[in-house]
Amino acid sequence: MTGTGTLLRFMLRRDRMRILWWTLGIAALYAGGLGEYLLLDDPEARAARSLLLSSPAMVSMSGPGYGLDDYTPGAAVANELVLWVLLALSVMSILQVVRHTRAEEESGRSELVRAGAVGRHAPSVAALLLVVVMNTVVALTSGAVVAAQGLDAAQSFAMTFATALGALVLGAVALVAAQVYEHGRGAAGASLAVLGAAFLLRAVGDVRERHGSPLSWVSPIAWVQQTRVFVDLRWWPLVLCVVAIVGLLALAAFLGSRRDHAAGLVAVRPGRADARPALTGPLPLAWVQQRGALLWTVLGLGVLWLGSGTIIREVPRALDAVAGNPVYDALLGSEGGLGGEEQMIRTFLGIFGLYIAAGAAAYGVAAVLRAKGEEETGRTELALAAPVSRGRWLAGPLTIALLGTATVQVTGALALWLGAVSTGYDELALGEYLELGLVYLPALAVLVALAAALHAWVPRATGLAWAMVGYVFVVGMFADLFDLPAWSRRISPFWWVGSPALGDVEPARLWGLAGVAVVLLLLAFAGFRRRDVPTL
């Protein structure tokens, strides 16, 4: 354990901005969601919302649903937000643990660190303590935000700390995976697979029996939801989280003591002595590197949109209950009235289209910035030493990012259609769902091209691409609610798309977005040819 404190301080300094952005993001999510629930002052509106939450589709997407008989704002935030905040914090915990353990060993930096007076388990313990600090800061800030809006302070902090404790279970899972797998991608993938299995077990168990069946209790997600905050607070389910964390830590220590440094317990399959002819270029290499991430993104988001599609037929009943509420009218862009049933569903589909496009944008930015990771590890420099031009090298990940983004977007729209059809709702044709997916492609190309241009010209500023992803979502959802000025809306590529579900799409704007994407791509290639590789 020697050197644990020093390593923890170094990790905190290295990730101070990550801590800040995660904290602000989760706190904003609580504030926005709770602000919406506080506006449900009409008993009929609350009853309609609770009725929607009691449907099997929504139980699988949110949770067992406590307090639906008297649906207070506290019960609403616990039922509708806790699951998604828990998933976000679990992803954060997994990525942070892998980043500071297995990824450090893979890069060779950990070996240099351990050449000093550093114990065998110090890096792993410091990484888990970092995740503890991050989740604690998020829990404190979020709890204060919830309590500041008038909810009971004890219940508010109980909710946020229970969510943080559940995320730590997945962080401990990642620590075990880091001992088993030799590469960071394998450790992160296995941990995320455990998270997905936990979500699926909880969903199936909650649908099978009201307020959770024995199958639900296999999942750590259910342990957090079974605290029943703002309804009937009980602490004992969190004991299961503590026991799981301690057991996983002991298992990680046991496995870590029985493997070589930089090696995993699962043997890596030996590859061919020579690469296949199809792999003699940057494009096939980028495909091999990114095909796994694309597959799991399509499957993960596809399941989410499939479940979302199953509630489409329930939309009119839910929206009828909030008709006339000025905040909901602003969110839905329906100041003139929601209209008939089909109009309501089309309005709701427009929101889902924005969600699908935001997920595809996040994948696209992550995929194109994979080129930055290749550069930081030194592999780009080695590749450019061969007869490979810079333009050809950059074109590989860019092409995969653009095609992968389109795939995520279109399959998301198809999954939404399948979910709706599975419940018997077939009023809208498949072509309309496809149009909902296709019209966003030029705007998505702009975001991918922007990330590429930032990487090519100012690698240190690539975080702006992620900021833009968040910005376009906020503008798309809350521009009318916050009465944002016209100039701020025009910054978002999504704003120029219009409302595809309502038929408000101008082809000239889509061509304009495509032109902007081409210009940014040309700038990316020009910048990458000019600057040093790597940029330190």
TrEMBL record:
TM regions (residue ranges): 19-40, 81-101, 122-145, 157-180, 187-205, 235-255, 293-312, 348-369, 398-418, 438-458, 465-488, 508-528
Organism: Promicromonospora thailandica
Record keywords, A-Z: Membrane, Transmembrane, Transmembrane helix
High-level lineage: Bacteria, Bacillati, Actinomycetota, Actinomycetes, Micrococcales
Protein name as catalogued: ABC-2 type transport system permease protein
